[in-house]
Amino acid sequence: MFSLKELEDAHRLVTSTMPATPQYAWPQLAERFGAKVWVKHENHTPTGSFKVRGAITFIDWLKRTKPNCPGIITATRGNHGQGQAMAATAQGMRAVVYVPRGNSAEKNAAMRAFGAELVEFGDDFDEAREEVLRVADAEGLQFVPPFHPELVRGVATYAYELLSNGPGIEVLYVPIGCGSGICGCITARDALGHPAKIVGVVSEHAQTAKLSVEAGELVETNAARTFADGMAVRVPVREAFDIYRKGAERIVTVSEEQVAEAIRVYYRDTHNLAEGAGAAPLAAFMAEADQMTGREVAVILCGGNIDTEWFVTVMQGGVPKPT
Predict the structure, then answer these.
(1) For residue 180, which of 202, 224, 211, 149 has the smallest C-alpha distance?
(2) Are residue 238 and residue 226 in the same domain, yes or no?
(3) In this structure, are residues 310 and 227 in contact, taking their beta carbons and an 8 Å threshold?
């Protein structure tokens, strides 16, 4: 999708705004699982999520190609919206962000703090996205889709950092929502000529990506109710599907209980907060840990923006129930 030079250029742009995020092979995880486990800490970005990387490159592209554009409009469950609001308002642009009703209160507050004009609409992400498509022209704003080449080019910079500094990584677990993360990993892996196999991770309650790959065509689902809200997608994205169906080794599912346990492991072993989607890669690795003994793997902690109430529920041994 991108050449190595294009990724290097994107990395320079992203790191002119934020520092590269750390990656640690935590000794507690090695003791627990008998493998070297690298954690890429995208929970340490300015917005607590990897999405800000794509926002930086997208807004830069928009300012260069449409210098008179007054602002952007997009739909999100939270992390994408925070990144877009941060990048757009830094350039003096409006950032109108739609979220579904019942969305994370704390993510909503964060988006507003980053300058977003927040609108609640629909029962899930896909309904909010459809409304954004309807009103974008009327508002005179640039629609920011969940998947766009400039978003992926920015997102791919985390995998560029990880794999450039982890030549021995054999398997990389990454969550799938609309697909920018896994496509960024595939793009960086291929551009670097790295041998890592990439495993996509979806929630058992939001399997559109897995079902689509298995069917060889796009498969929508009727619902996507999971507390791993970054993966709560019903409708697959064609452009992303075309990349991960060929570039991923496989796609696996994780349960709500497995994700909750992975959040607990992250906190106990590394004292890092992980939201549901952020913990899903570790949950998938944990389910396959017996097959990974003695190997070198990596997991993407893609975000740490978990609501307080949900985190308390998880640390008390429970599983949050999405509304």
Answers:
(1) 149
(2) yes
(3) yes
Phi-psi region of 193 (alpha: psi -120 to 50; beta: other; left: phi over 0): left
Instruction: Based on the fold, state whether residues 11 and 76 are members of the same structural domain.
Output: no
Q: Which domain holds residue 33?
A: 4-50+149-315
Cβ neighbours for 134, distance < 8 A, ≥ 6 positions apart: none
57 and 46, same domain (yes or no) = no
Calculate the alpha carbon distances from 305 to 78, 80, 124, 253, 301 in Å: 9, 12, 18, 21, 11
- For 114, the token pair is 């980053």
Contact 178, 75 (CB under 8 A): no
Q: Report if residue 294 sits inside a domain.
A: yes
pLDDT in tens, 101-137: 989 889 999 999 999 999 999 998 889 989 999 999 8
Percent of the chain with pLDDT over 70: 100
What is the C-alpha separation between 116 and 97, in angstroms, rounded? 6
Question: Residue 68 maps to which CATH number?
Answer: 3.40.50.1100
For the whole model, what pTM was predicted?
Answer: 0.95
Kindly report, residue by residue over 270-318, the tens digit of the pLDDT.
999 999 999 999 999 999 999 999 999 999 999 999 999 999 999 999 9
Helix extents (H) in the chain: 4-15, 27-33, 51-65, 79-90, 105-113, 125-139, 149-164, 180-192, 208-215, 238-247, 256-270, 276-287, 308-315
The C-alpha atoms of residue 244 and residue 236 are separated, in whole angstroms, by 11
Q: Maximum distance among all alpha carbons in the chain?
A: 57
Own/partner contacts of 20-25, CB < 8 Å, gap of 24 or more, are 20/161, 21/45, 21/158, 21/161, 23/161, 23/162, 23/165, 23/166, 23/298, 24/270
